[in-house]
Amino acid sequence: MLDWTTIITTLIGGGGIVGLFLITERKTSASVDNLRKQYDVLMELFEKQQLRHDQDLANMSALYEEKASLREKLDDSRTLAAVNAILRCEKTACALREPPLGSNQQANETKNQKNITQ
Prior knowledge:
This protein is 81% helix and 0% strand. The longest helix is centred in the middle third of the chain and has 71 residues, at 16-86. By secondary structure, the chain is mainly alpha-helical. It is rod-shaped, with a radius of gyration of 45 Å. The model has no long low-confidence stretch (mean pLDDT 76). It has three helices and no strands. The protein has helices spanning 4-13, 16-86, 104-117. The protein has a domain at 30-84. It starts with a helix and ends with a helix.
């Protein structure tokens, strides 16, 4: 029959307790190594994402600048179209074209200058 003293002396004499400590130490070191590897992989992924994020921000700022310049061009062209619509000539089929809204004075001055130079 086995009693506790026999079990304890067998474990101590045969190196069972030391073996238990070594097994737990190996498990701990293996789990630490696994955690280190996981950390390295995650840091690599994070750095790649950070680089991609920085590139995306640079692309976005370039797109915002392009958007602003295109809006400026569109604004200028719409302004020019509005001015041309306001100053459109009322007589379309004759040689004496007259723009509306009091710009007759400018047109008359232009005609007078042409007559003087001829």
